[in-house]
């Protein structure tokens, strides 16, 4: 009949001594089809795992870059020969270099520095802001006023980085690939 399963018998001894297993015809390629279905899915998962690890690397790098730039903006080189705090351009260059990724440049990073080196608003003793690097777009937000002003001044560094992942991700999954980190630190007047 048509709905019968046809079996074939392998030669005796072909699968071990005295083996006599029956194999249904038509299942020889099943493992190959399963492999062909699983390999692309597994490859996509591995690629996204690489991207996720890269995003964690970017986030930690931006945290440390913003912190390093803020400390340098307040302390400078901490030498007796230093007469003034560093300029906004020097702090911006340090922030970009501190990211430590090969794709970090003035074309992919925006840095805004709000410090006394840029200037001070006399009315509220708040630091004025400068944006020497605007590669990742405009930086928004206003610096806060220190609650113990005028003895202290609150300085701020914003770092924005446009990420290019190692394995491209469709825009529908992750619509924006821009990271923003901000650090505020008090400075004695």
The main pleated sheet reads as:
4 strands, antiparallel
Q: What's the Cα radius of gyration? A: 30 Å
Counting DSSP H or I runs of 4 or more residues, the number of helices is: 2
Strands across the major sheet, in which order? Answer: 6-3-7-8
Mean pLDDT: 81
The domain tally reads 1
| Fraction in helix | 25-40%
- Characterize the quaternary organization of these chains: single chain
Low-confidence stretches: none
Could you walk me through the main structural features you see in this protein, from its secondary elements to its overall organization?
Helix 1 (30-75) runs antiparallel to helix 2. The longest helix is centred in the N-terminal third of the chain and has 46 residues, at 30-75. The protein starts with 6 loop residues before the first strand and ends with a strand. It has two helices and eight strands. The strands form three sheets. Strands 6-3-7-8 form a four-stranded antiparallel β-sheet, covered by helices on one side. The protein is of the alpha+beta class and 189 residues long. A hairpin with a 4-residue loop joins strand 4 (120-121) and strand 5. The mean pLDDT is 81. It has helices spanning 30-75, 88-99; strands at 7-8, 23-24, 109-114, 120-121, 126-127, 129-134, 152-162, 178-188. The protein has one domain (30-76, 86-188).
